Amino acid sequence: MAGPSLGAFGEVNRAFWDSSAQVEKVSTEPWIQDLTRQIFDHLRSNTAWIGLEQKPQGAIRMLDYACGTGIASMAMLPSVTEIRGIDVSGGMVDKYNAEARKAGMSEDQMHAVRGDLLAPAGGPLQGQEFHNFDLIVMSMALHHVDEPDKIVAKFVERLKPGGTVVIIDWIPKSSRADSGTASDQHQHSDAKHTISFDGFNKDQMRGFFSEAGCLSSDFVLAESPSKVPPDPTGQRQLFFAKGIK
Questions:
Q1: 226 touches 167 (CB < 8 A)
Q2: Helix, strand and coil in the chain, % to nearest 5
Q3: Nearest CA-CA partner of 87 in 119, 61, 60
Q4: Which candidate, 85, 81, 53, 54, places its Cα nearest to that of 69?
Q5: Which of 11, 161, 185, 219 is the most buried (most CB within 10 A)?
Q6: Beta-bridge partner residues of 5
Q7: How far apart, in whole angstroms, are the C-alpha atoms of residue 43 and residue 239?
Q8: Torsion angle of alpha carbons 43, 44, 50, 56, nearest 10°?
Q9: Is this prediction's pTM over 0.90?
Q10: 8 A C-beta contact, residue 91 and residue 20
Q11: CB-side neighbour CA atoms (13 Å) of 63
Q12: 8-45 pLDDT tens trace
């Protein structure tokens, strides 16, 4: 049976990230594991900044988009009650769901599907299960999207009023956090064809959120640069950006 429809660039990413070798690399490469721990720790220790501590008692729903193996979901588990993941890669989705079951989460609590919000309309992602989220997180994947403004707008459409979108990615190597433009360079030579941007700066992220209808936004840097051995400089700088609907 045919899988869900993907956009053109989503198909490029699916073809690369569906490889069992890439799934294994994400799960075992030491520098990637260090990076995921850095992201996990920052998310877990900044729930107030994310806005979850201000949510009323009851169900708190999260979408982990481009979920990969589920690092953002695992970080948010203590603070949310229901998580849905979406990824263009079936291999990543399988790994995500296996990790969720290993953590004792039922499908109702934490489950991912393959899909692409930039694909032509239709299919299961149009249902209520994939709308009305309190929190949407996209970690280390916006630079893989050829139309980042459109994906941010899709996220905001699927938030509840007062909900938060959190984007985690690199700042451009050629700029500081508040200036500069993205380029087509990337540290993974084998993944270069899946990359649209080298990173994003504060003004770009503020623009994406504002154009999508967010009432406010914020942009902070990780406390320290991330070690990235494949990069010529040996390190990159993470940012954490949020928009509130």
A1: no
A2: 40, 20, 40
A3: 119
A4: 85
A5: 219
A6: none
A7: 12
A8: 150
A9: no
A10: yes
A11: 30
A12: 444 555 555 455 556 666 667 888 899 999 999 999 99
